[in-house]
Amino acid sequence: MSVSMAIFFWSLVILAYVVGPVALFWGWVRRVGRATLWTLTSVLSLIGFLLATASAILAIVSVAYARVHFFRYYDPVLMRIFRSGALLSMVGFAFAIGGVWRKNVLRWFAVASVVGTFAFWVLAAAGE
Known about the structure:
Elements: H1 3-33, H2 40-68, H3 76-98, H4 107-127
Helix pairs in contact: 1-4, 2-3, 2-4, 3-4
């Protein structure tokens, strides 16, 4: 493996297993703990953050399901799970980017969490 590929791989690992979960946890702590104004950018950030949370929940449920159900190589159900998780993250990224233009509680947490969940789905699909 070349050095650039190793750096890319480890960047994805750090995004998927460190940045994503920390951003989701800390974003929920900040969101629940504060009252926010309902502006367009805060709603866009919230939608992006909720989509990242849905993608993370899908990841947790699919990993738990994989422990009790054996997936064949390139199983169609598993491919649909990968596609759904990545799609949730990409749509969440579009909403999260829409919310970064003005200051709000979830502005950077939404972006970091959708990038982390998308990195997880890329790694999961690459491991297939």
